[in-house]
## 1
Amino acid sequence: MRLLLAEDDEQLSEALNSVLQHRGYRVDCVRRGQDARTALDCVDYDLMLLDLGLPDVDGLDVVRDLRQAGKKLPILVITARETIDDRIQGLDLGANDYIVKPFDIRELEARIRAFLRNAQWENQPEILCGRLALDTTSRQIFLDRQELELTPRESAVLQALIMRVGKLVHKQSLIEQVSSWDSEVTENAVEIVIHRLRKKLESGGVNIRTVRGFGYLLEKPE
Ligand code: CA
C-alpha cells in the first residue's frame, strides 16, 4: 500500500508518516502542490492524503486536475478550513472524504482503513492462508493466532504475498511496496526481507517459494 501525503505542516507530516509506516503503509511525503503533481505522475498510489492549504497551489485545484485527467485514486482531504462551502466544493470536485484539523490520528487511520478495505478487500475482515491470517482492519498478521512481530518492510512484503497467495509476485512490485520517496530499495534488500520472513514463518509450515529471475510466491496451503 503506497500513500502520498501532501501536507506542508512539518510536524503533522512527520507524525502521520511515522504512524502510517508502523502500520505497514509506504508513505511519500511532499510539502508543495507541485511536488504532489510530480509524484502522482510517477507513481501509482493507492490513496492520497491532501491538505487543502498548501503554500503554492490550492489543494482544490489538485483535486480538480486529477479528476479531469480521469485519475480515480481515492483522495482524503485534510483541511483546517471551517466553512462548509469549502468542504462541499472539495467533495463536488471529486475528493472522496475529508477530515477537519485538528483531528485524532486514530480517526484518520480508521478512514484510511475504510478506503483501502473498500478498494481492495470488499469488506473481507480477514484473509486466511492456512495457519496465517491477515486482519485487514488492523493489518496485523497472525500465525496460529499469535501475532507475528514484523518490521514495516516485512509486514508490507508479507501482506503483498498473502493478497496474491498461490500466485507469483514480481520482485519489482515488492521493491515498490517497500520503497518510498526518500529511500530507494534494492533487490538485495528485498532478498533480505524474504530471508527473515522465511525464518519467522518456518515453524508454521508456511513456504515462500523463489521463482528464479522473477520473484516470489506464497505457497497455497494444502
Ligand atoms: Ca497547510
Note: The longest helix spans residues 105-120.
## 2
Amino acid sequence: MSTNQTQIQLIQPDDWHLHIRDGEVMKDVLIDTVRQFARAIIMPNLKPPVTTVDLANAYRTRIQLQLKSLGIDSFTPLMTLYLTNNTSADEVRKAKAAGITAFKLYPAGATTNSDAGVTDLKYCHDALEAMQAVGMPLLVHGEVTSPEIDIFDREAVFIYQVLDPLRKDFPELKVVFEHITTLQAAHYVRDAATGGKNLIAATITPQHLLMNRNAIFAGGIRPHNYCLPVLKREEHRLALLEVATSGNPRFFLGTDSAPHAKGAKETACGCAGCYSAFNALGLYAEAFESVGKLDKLEGFASFFGPDFYSLPRNTRKIILVKQAQIIPNELPLGDATIVPLRAGETIAWSLV
Ligand code: NCD
Ligand code: ZN
C-alpha cells in the first residue's frame, strides 16, 4: 500500500457487519455499499428474522435479483442466520453445507428486531456444539439486556456474564465480538488466549472510532448519532482507535450501517442505528488519519476480515483521495428518506 498526503491506494475492502433490510429500501442502501465494498456480512434481523437456511437462501436470491437489476456483478453478500432458542444442530450443519457464513447471536431484546433472540444460551447448547464442530463462526451482539444494568455498562458486563463463560464452554468456537464500543471489549479481544488459533476477533464501526457519547447530546438530542451499543466515553473511543490502528489482525472493519427512515429516528422513541454506508471508507480514513495511522487502514479494512473467515483476500484495488465531500442532508430510502451519518458535514476522504 502506498500512502501520501492526498491519496491512498488499497485492496478493495469488505464490510463484515451490515444491515441492508429488505423490500423497497434494499436497493437504496445497497447502492452505497457496493460502490465501496466487494463483500458484506448481511445481518439477519429482518421482520421476521432469517432463522433458517431456506429463509437465508430466499433472502440471498432477493439480494442477487436487486444487484442484477442495478447491473452489479462485483458484489457478494455473505449470509448469516439468526440464532434462536430453537436452532437445531441439524440446521447448523445444513447451513454449513449451504455456504452460510455465520450465525448471529442477539440476546433477546438487545436491539432492533431482536425479540426472537436468545433468552439464555443454555438453550443453544446443541447448536453451539455443532458450530464449534463444523467451524461455523458465531457473531455476537455483546450486550446484556437486564433492565437493571446501566445501558453504558451492558457491553462490559456481557464479557464476564456471557462471553467468557461461552468461550470456556466451547473453546474451539470461532467468535466475532461485533461492533465493540468499550475499552474492556477491546482489551478482552486483544488479550484472549487462543493457543495461536484464529478464534476471536472484533468488528469496529466508524462512529465508535470518531465519536464519544457527547455526540448524542451536542446542543440538543441528536437521534442520528444514536445506535446500539450506544456511544461511550472518550476513554473508550481512544481504546478502540488504539486497537483498530495497531495492525492487530483480531480487529477489522464492520460498519454496522443500520438504515432507519428519517421519521423512525426523529420521533419520541427513535430507532437505534447510524447510516454510515454513504461514505464509510471516508469515515474510517478520517479516523486512522487522526492518529497518523493511514498505513494501517488496509489491513483493518481489507485483509484481517477475510483472513479470519478463511476467505480469499480481494485483488482489485481502490483509491481514496483527500477531496472534501459534503454529506447530503438526506438520501432516498424507498418512499421515505434517510439522514446519513454526518449529514450536512464535510468528510475529507472519498473514493475515486
Ligand atoms: C441495528 C439495526 O438497526 O438493525 N441497530 C444498531 O443500532 N446497530 C441492530 C444492531 O446491530 O444492534
Ligand atoms: Zn448491527
Note: The mean pLDDT is 97.
